[in-house]
Design a protein that fits this description.
The protein starts with a helix and ends in a 68-residue tail after the last helix. The protein is of the alpha+beta class and 180 residues long. It has a domain of 94 residues: GMP Synthetase, Chain A, domain 3, CATH 3.30.300. Strands 1-2-3 form a three-stranded mixed β-sheet. The longest helix has 25 residues.
Length: 180
């Protein structure tokens, strides 16, 4: 894709997510994340990839409610974004999370010595994060006695702070027609 469509995709993803979070009051809409937006080159259509956490019935109900809310979302986008044409929105379910959960479950069963072919239980739930245990061959963690940087305002690399008491660090304003 071009840089323009990539910027439009990201802007649409952010704005659609904000509209769903703040403006849609439908109780059928559960926990929704807009994972990606892909627009066509002429910006007439956009695929909106949505991830929904919940059971299969809850996901289906949420996708149905979001599908009915797409005209409202498109209207809100027209009021928020200044582009010539707001693309027609097509909703797609993003199942990456479910596939990742299944892979994690298979790996944990292989690690436990179980047969991964006999998966039992619902696949709708997300794995519970656990702290990582040290393994043989891991590098030791460095001991820290305190914060590495002094507390206070941090400056990003490549940025300079201007200082009112140090005029060398602040550019002097120039008047038109004046010589250096």
């Amino acid at each position: 894709m071009t840089q323009r469509t990539d910027r439009v995709d990201e802007l649409l993803r952010q704005e659609i997510g904000a509209i769903i979070a703040k403006e849609i009051d439908d109780p059928r809409v559960g926990f929704v994340t807009i994972t990606d937006v892909e627009t066509t080159a002429d910006l007439s259509h956009a695929q909106v990839w949505v991830s929904v956490i919940g059971s299969a019935d809850e996901r289906t109900e949420t996708l149905r409610a979001l599908g009915r809310a797409m005209p409202f979302i498109r209207r809100q986008l027209g009021a928020r974004i200044r582009i010539r044409r707001i693309p027609e929105l097509h909703l797609r379910a993003d199942e990456t999370l479910e596939r990742g959960t299944r892979v994690l479950r298979l790996l944990s069963e292989l690690e436990a010595g179980a047969d991964p072919g006999t998966l039992t239980g619902p696949l709708d739930t997300l794995p519970t994060p656990v702290p990582r245990l040290p393994h043989e061959g891991d590098a030791p963690e460095p001991a820290t006695d305190g914060p590495a940087e002094p507390p206070g305002r941090q400056v990003r690399p490549g940025r300079r702070r201007t200082n009112a008491t140090n005029p060398a660090r602040r550019p002097t304003p120039r008047r038109r027609g004046s010589r250096p």
